[in-house]
Design brief:
magnesium (chains A, B); lyase (chains A, B); metal-binding (chains A, B); alpha/beta; homodimer
């Protein structure tokens, strides 16, 4: 049973100067400093447990998310944790439908990132009180209870609560075996660590060769800034990994719709499994146009149909910047993606991700989560392990992104074995950072930033 | 010629306690305090002119937008105004594509509202330096120059710069006559002031009767919270205005897709011209399903098709919370709306609104701007008057929202004559507020708020 009244909510601006090494760089985000708005919830319960929640950011702007968390705080403070999780749908809606705050969203951008940070902390606290890792809390939860955490508003035209219940009921079959399978083999991963856009070829080669030695078989390369560069880099990586291993490409929204089709036609020879974020994350019909062959959905699309990507065997993947379940609903309705990439901090925490996992199951589209950044691997592994055990029951065409950065700052870092995520065993959502790391990287007054900001040229 | 270097950017949190009177209340925003993040730009030019920009908010959360404006300030400060407007597309993209800040958008929610406030101030300053009201600055601007303000990224699949140029070229024909027409007759408006959801029937009746006396012929009523209430209120207002005058309904996103169709079938007898925001502003395919009769666009929609709204003669309108040009592009592609409602502060200022006006023209969908709030009427009149003179060249099915609140706080308030917006004659974008009003309503330390916050019960 959840216990205690939320007696304190604090939030910190934590930044890692990753831009100095080109880590995380892509066609649209050339100088990211991986960062987080980091929420800590305390209760008046005697157990002394705290809930930690993060949302991922890229440096500048973290202070804006911090400000939004503070704007949400009055919905959280003095609330009983039992009441919150007892009507989690109501609480979710309270945060996302505040009559004044929803104007600056709704359910998107800064306020939704802030909502994610707060709710991630609530889930961490709840799981800790239950003494279970989050994935296990979800796996063990009664389906009706699980569904009571989801706000079905705006998605009932494709998924009603009853349909969702049927999906979860079917997911009960073979659940124990799948849990066992996860505990012994883990969830398959792919790596993005080798081929950031800012890395010189030599770095790319070295990291790729190390990754091969470590048993990685699936690789993602960043593309989209310069076609000739892309061809050279893709050639290089395909040569290194050989014809059998899997290669994915990621354009990080660099292209317009016609450009995406043309550009990918040029990169098709390197046989990518998918092209990720070919265009604006808001462009559902654009993704549909890019991904489809056959007859156009809407008039006026014929120029792209002849060259669209399906005949090339390239799928479309997107999701890390899709801002809520309504966008995912439409991407599924329009058959605009072949791989759905949830994000543990962009969507409204576990609650909204559950809705998306269930819709993906209904449409039979594999979920391949976005990870990396700061803590995204730590968090999203819980969701995808739950998905396998209780929802999708399949590993076909499925894998979870992995990036080898910044795990050392977490108290319960991910464990990768044979290129797979091993299920966390510690209670909670793996969101807690080491106090030492938090202190040093607090912006702008942590030790790391004090030094950097004092350095000449800054 | 634009002149001066931006030497100062300041931003204030201005709130009006409108929730106390139920003004502005609707099915989703029950207690709005109409507010604004208010940006002031100063230059080192000798003219002493300042640029004022606002974005509209609903109270709580204004401080988050203020924080986001400050996060954008480094892109603005010390820039030459001539350089900014000389490459306005580049400047727009710099604000919206900051490699770190775009993660917490991109081009949506808080950061985009902040972008709008900053750019609105730039346009105000530019127009003041040119000695023209903004609409006239736009009308007189060379089409190529006008297009150089627009970021065509993500919309070239429906509108290329060349197509946009052809539209503007065609708009040159008869321009002088239309300008004359505007100056004498003004732009037709409709009123939303009579029927906020929070008003008792007696207030509604009184306001409606006054509006009729003042010559209003088009009325909007808020619906969506309770069907029986809606029937009673719609009956009341239709009886008062008679069968010939125009009635619109606004649900402010209250419904899911099937619910919207069912609910409106019940209200059809009151013959609304449109239903506004029937569901989530993100739900392009949902709006398409609601608005369409005939064959379904996508499989699985058949349950709604039989009852969809087109056979009832009810159009779908949306836009005030559509967060960028990519959403509008798709709403047009999917024929999801029959009336397009731009907003002067939700989109990225004049720059992005120009893109939307041009797309709407291409798809031959009438633009009926959203207004009301604080300053929205003042700003958007410039855009729609420009639209008539230089783009649409038509008043068919077109009108601009008007709400009779808070104009007294503006230095250059709107002038309504015979239920029409009369073109502003003062130089600028009509964004400047009275210093006295700003001082009094600053949150939380202005006189008005000091009193309210000290009152018992707060």
């Amino acid at each position: 049973m959840a216990r205690g009244r939320i007696s304190r909510l604090s939030v910190r601006d934590i930044r890692f100067p990753t831009s100095l090494g080109g880590h995380g760089s892509d066609a649209m985000h050339t100088d990211p400093d991986y960062s987080a708005a980091y929420v800590i919830l305390e209760t008046d319960a005697e157990d002394g447990l705290k809930g930690y929640g993060i949302t991922f950011t890229l440096g500048r702007g973290t202070e804006v998310v911090v400000c939004a968390v503070n704007a949400l705080a009055h919905h959280v403070l003095n609330r009983d944790l039992g009441d919150i999780v007892g009507d989690f749908r109501g609480f979710y809606r309270q945060l996302t439908s505040d009559g004044q705050l929803r104007w600056i969203g709704p359910e998107k951008g800064v306020v939704h990132l802030a909502t994610a940070a707060v709710l991630n902390a609530v889930w961490d606290l709840w799981a800790k009180q239950e003494g279970k890792p989050l994935w296990k809390l979800l796996v063990d939860m009664d389906p009706r209870r699980l569904l009571s955490c989801i706000d079905f508003r705006y998605i009932t035209d494709v998924l009603t609560e009853e349909e969702a219940h049927e999906i979860l009921q079917r997911g009960q079959v073979g659940k124990r075996e799948r849990e066992e399978q996860m505990l012994t083999e883990g969830y398959p991963a792919y790596t993005t660590s080798c081929a950031w856009l800012g890395y010189p070829d030599a770095t790319l080669q070295q990291l790729c060769s190390e990754a091969l030695k470590d048993g990685w078989t699936r690789f993602k390369v960043k593309v989209g800034a310069d076609l000739q560069d892309d061809i050279r880099r893709c050639q290089l990586i395909r040569n290194m990994i050989g014809p059998e291993k899997t290669l994915m490409m990621d354009a990080n929204q660099r292209w317009d719709v016609p450009e995406a089709v043309e550009w990918m036609a040029r990169l098709a020879e390197f046989r990518p499994l998918w092209i990720e974020e070919p265009t604006s994350p808001d462009d559902i019909l654009g993704h549909a146009a890019i991904s489809k062959a056959g007859k156009p959905l809407l008039p006026g699309w014929w120029p792209y149909i002849l060259q669209a990507l399906a005949p090339l065997g390239i799928g479309v993947a997107t999701g890390e910047q899709c801002h809520n379940r309504v966008i995912f609903k439409q991407l599924l309705q329009a058959k605009a993606l072949q791989f759905l990439q949830i994000d543990s901090c962009r969507l409204g925490s576990v609650n909204e991700n559950l809705a998306v996992l269930l819709m993906a199951k209904k449409f039979d589209v594999p979920v391949c989560p976005h990870a990396g950044g700061v803590g995204l691997c730590e968090l999203v592994q819980h969701l995808i392990i739950f998905d396998f055990i209780s929802v999708s029951a399949s590993l076909k065409d499925r894998m979870c992104e992995y990036v080898d950065h910044l795990h050392e700052h977490f108290k319960y870092p991910v464990r990768i074995k044979k290129a797979s995520y091993m299920p966390p065993k510690d209670a909670g959502y793996s969101t807690e950072m080491k106090e030492e790391s938090v202190k040093k990287h607090q912006y702008p007054d942590g030790e790391v930033w004090k030094k950097l900001l004092a350095a000449p040229g800054d």
